[in-house]
Structures are given as structure tokens and as C-alpha cells.
Amino acid sequence: ACTTAPPPAPPPYRGGESLSRPVPCAPGFAVPAPALPLSAPFLHATFLSRPVAPPAVPPRQRNLTRLSRRRPPRSPMDLPVVDLAPFLQAAAGDAAPAEAEEALRALCATVSASLRDTGALLVKDPRCTAADNDRFLDVVERYFARSDDSKRLQERPHLHYQVGVTPEGVEVPRSLVDKEMQDRIKSMPEEFQPATPKGPDPKWRYMWRVGPRPSNTRFKELNAEPVIPDGLPEWKETMDSWGAKMISAIEVVAEMAAIGFGLSKDAFTSLMKEGPHLLAPTGSNLLRHGSEGTVFAGFHYDLNFLTIHGRSRFPGLNIWLRNGKKMEVKVPVGCLLIQSGKQLEWLTGGECLAGMHEVVVTKRTLEAIELAKEQNRSLWRISSTLFSHIASDATLKPLGHFAEAPNAHSYPPICAGEYVEQELSAINLKGKVAL
């Protein structure tokens, strides 16, 4: 049995709250009001460490007040762009007037609604800058530019490739081995169908563990020590720094989503403690595999909780919204893309579905390749990707009111580590087991 229990169910509904009453949120989104009081004490208990502000509003709080007068902007991808700064200010103890409290509630509703209705979300986190992302990409480009033999020194297949490097030609896209997924693809309108991979993914990946790991766990292979490549003295500090900032952004989104869903603020983050979070940049050699239509990562979902992407220097990532629409990713400068993973799907009883995506060489990729050649830049496409996980020994099962969701029976309790090992087996990163 798993040693880590799931968080307790949320408090009972009170004060006449109704699941059917919508909360203000971004255009096109409406979610049930959280099962929590709407009064100032709610914000004090949930966001703040001191009482609600008096009528005089200090300058920093004016930003929170102005927030209530506008809706989150939309990106060119037609996803809401959520600025995490107001939530961070409130969580740090910057008391907000009542008007701003409702705005923060609406912001949380936007996060949960976007994850539920589209499986994706764009966020701005003032702690994660474009300069940080560029520094990370520079270091990882230098690593992947090494010879294949040199990179293979960091390969750890006996640890299920969960630390160190995974060479190209190892990982098998789920769409090649999952009959149900293949049938789903056939049923899609032709313009929304993914590209068809011809075999294992021709991409490399480096797995770098982020954050502490448990001292005792049944799943040692999923919580192994990091592998540090020689000859890159800045590697560890760069990876640790960017990984910590990315996981911090994920934790805020997880808290906001929990509030928006009517769960306790720490419903998700308490399960993430000491999880096997992985900063997992991919490296795709565009000099070798740069022809239009090449599939670097076949149509698949992510097995983890939430995935976060920084901007890549080369386009090619496509995602599928819950309505089946295929969308080319265009992350605005200074933003991060969040996608739902399978563990979030499990915890919400299927109310949030894991986001599907692929990476393919497109016409826009070819244009970026030509520009990179003119500027004498690296022709390795690096993804700035982090996988956040539920702790390996924690239990995956629908939380709180999600236990009553129509499809909750499809998500029976299972140790997160056992689930991850089954998924790794299916995509050829672990010895085969029955799914």
C-alpha cells in the first residue's frame, strides 16, 4: 500500500453556496463556484497572512484592485494568459481590498476552467524571465552539440532513463502502441489529425531531477541521483536554478487550480511534495532531421501531473484542445505554457483530460532554421520542458467532489509510482509490464 495518504476532502458546502453558480472568469469559461466562503476571511485563510486591508490602498495593492476591472488577456493561441503576480503578492501577505479578493477568485477560476476545458494555459511568472530561459537553452545547446558517443556516457537505461540522457531512437510514441489512441486519431477530422511517426522518436532528452527526493521509497529508480556531464561547469547551477523557478510556477498554478476547483489550496501541492519532478529538455538535431514533416515527438500525452514549457528557439510544438482542435503553439515572450498531464486527469476523475501534443518540423521551423544559419546559431532544437509529478508513494485517486464525477470509476486508486512504471513500459523506457 502507498505510504502517503491523499489530502482530506474539502470542507462541506456552507452559506448557501451552490455548485451551479458560476464565478466570473475569462471569456468563454465558466466553472462552479468553489465550495468555500466568499467573504474576506476566505481570502485571509487562503491567500493572506494578515487581515484584509483598510480603505486606504497602498500602491502595490492598487494593482490588485485594477485586476478586478479587466479579464485575463487572450494569446494568439486563444488561450488565457494568466499573470501570477497578483496571487504571489497576496500569498506573500499583501492584503487586498474586497474587490480584489473577488478578482483573485476569478483568476483561480480561469486557471481551473482552462485546464478543464482546453487542457492548456499560458502564464506569466515574474520569477521566470526570458533571460533565465535563454541561459538554460544556451547551456543545453552546448551539451547536445557533443558527439553521440560523448552524450551516451550519461545514459542510464537501468534507471528507466529517468535521469541522464535518453538517445534518439529509444522512446516510442504512445500513438504507435496504443490501439485506442489509433482509433481516436482515425476518427478526427483530417485537418486536425497528427503527423504519423515512422518509428521511435528521433530526439534526444536529458532528465535532470528537481527538488528533494524521499529518503525512503518503494520506487528508487524513479528517484535516483542526478547525472552531471563533464566539461560543463555551469551545468548544475543552471539546471537547478531554472528547474526551481519552473517548479515554483507549477506549484502556484496547482494552488490556483485547486481553489478554482473548490478543493483546499494544498490539495495538489501536498501530494507533489518530494515528487520525482524532472527538468527534461529535448534535443532535436535539425541539421540531421530538419526536413519538413519529420516527427520528433509523436502524438502523445504526458504521464505526469502538470507539464510546463518555456519558449523554444524553433517552432514545431502542436497541442490538441479538449474540443479536438489542433493548435500550433506560439508562446508569447515572457510566458510559459502549462499542459494537463495524466496524473491531473486521475486526481480529477477525468474532469481534466491529459493534453495531447506532438513536435513536428513545419514551415515555420524551416524559416527558423534558415534564420539560425544566417546568424550562425545552433541548429539543435531545445525544448524548455519540466515534468511535475505526484510523489511516487502517494495515491492517485479522484479528490474531494471529483470522486462523484461521472467517470470517476475509471480512475481506481493506484500508487503514483506504479502508474508511472506502467506508462514507462508502454513507451519503451522500462521493461514491459501489463497495462
From TrEMBL:
Name of the molecule in the record: Non-haem dioxygenase N-terminal domain-containing protein
Keyword Membrane annotated: no
One MF annotation (Gene Ontology) recorded for this entry: metal ion binding
Matches recorded under Gene3D superfamilies: B-lactam Antibiotic, Isopenicillin N Synthase, Chain (2.60.120.330)
Region (Disordered): 1-20, 53-78
Keywords assigned by UniProt, alphabetized: Iron, Metal-binding, Oxidoreductase
Composition bias, Pro residues: 1-13
InterPro entries with a match to the protein in the record: IPNS-like_sf
Keyword Transmembrane among record annotations: no
